[in-house]
Every structure is written in structure tokens, then in C-alpha cells.
Input
Amino acid sequence: MTVEGRVAIVTGTAQGIGSAIAAALGDAGAVVHGCDKDTVDVTDPAQVGEFVARIGRVEILVNNAGGVVGQVGRPLEEVSDEDWRTVVDANLTSTFVCTRAVAPGMKKRRYGRIVNISSGAGRSVSLTGIQAYASAKAGQIGFTRQTAHELGPYGITVNSIAPGFVLSNPSSIAQYESYGEEGQQRLLESIATRRVGVPADIANGVLFFASEEASWVTGQVLSIDGGYSIF
Output
């Protein structure tokens, strides 16, 4: 997939999927600028604006930052306003803020590749039971389609990836371990390929969407989940 010389921003690169995406783009020849919550608050327009301004030309944006932000599933009536906003901001607001920041430059150059890392939870339900997470990830998919429609005339594509269960960080590993041997077996039996995902599986999808070869692909949601979503 051709990304040689392209300038990319990848959010949420501290570990797991984000780290794998940044590495894959870099190995393919892109100039990658990664950030995580310790370097740039991607829900803060001022910090994001300064980050983008320092880089200058941005041709690829991967909105990967997000996750469950340390939360666990609880009954709806026990979810506080703050907990709801925290998860929605981390996953959906960050996608909006970062996309808005790079859009003017991409439109001026009439070229751009934007890839939003959603989740299978955004297409179905969350295995974590976190209502805000499922809602924010579904919102990312809607945002993908709307911005693909708006930005397409400027040579900018916007696509989304909906990962299945990926062992990518301490939260997902702890979740998997909490299922126990029987629960893990049930999960594997619900996946056509009979394995959970690894970060490189998602990075491979990003490489395609970010490439020259994907210039006529936009507004799409690609489930990378080993076939989990076909059941």
C-alpha cells in the first residue's frame, strides 16, 4: 500500500493498536507524528490546533484515541454524567476535534486520508456493557459517513474500522482474563477464525484506507474481527 512520503498523525499511540498503526505507517514510508494523552489532549481544541500547526502539512489522520477510560460496565442508573461525558469525549469528541483541525489544510491541498478507529461495539453491543462506549463508537461511524460526504469533493476520503476483540492493552487483557477458561472458549467459538485479534490486524486495514490504492473508497466501515460480526 502506497503511503511513501505522506505525513500522518496517529492519536493514541502510547500502546496497543495506536502504536502498531504508527509503526506500520512508518515502515511503509510515511512520516508519522504520534500523540497520546500525556503529550496532547485530543479533546482540547487549543492543544490539537497547536499540534497540527507545528506539523504543518498533514495528509493522513488516524483517530485512534479512545477506549473505556478505565471504566467497567454498570447498570444505566449508576452511570454518572461525568462518566458518560468522559467516555464520549475520549472517543467521539476527540475524533471531531482532530478532524476539524486537519480539514482546512487537506481541503486546500485537495488531498487527505482520514481513518477512524471505531469498534464492533459501535455496530452491535459492547461486551464491556459500557453504554457510553457503544454510543460513542456508533457516533464515530455516523461521523465517518457524514464527513466522507462533505469532504469527498476535495479529494479527502474518510473511512472507519470496527475492530473485534483485540488483545492490545492492559484493559483488554484484563477483560479477556476475567472471562476464565470457559468464557474465553465461548468467545473464541463465536469468532470464525477461532482467534482473538492482535494490533497488527487493525494496522493492516489502516494501511489500505490510508493508501493511494484506496482513493475511490470512502464512507465505509470495515469490520476486522475474525468473522465475529457474521454470526
Remarks:
- The chain has seven helices and six strands.
- Strands lie at 7-11, 31-35, 60-63, 112-117, 156-163, 221-224.
- The chain has one domain: 7-166+198-223.
- The domain at 7-166+198-223 is CATH 3.40.50.720 (Rossmann fold).
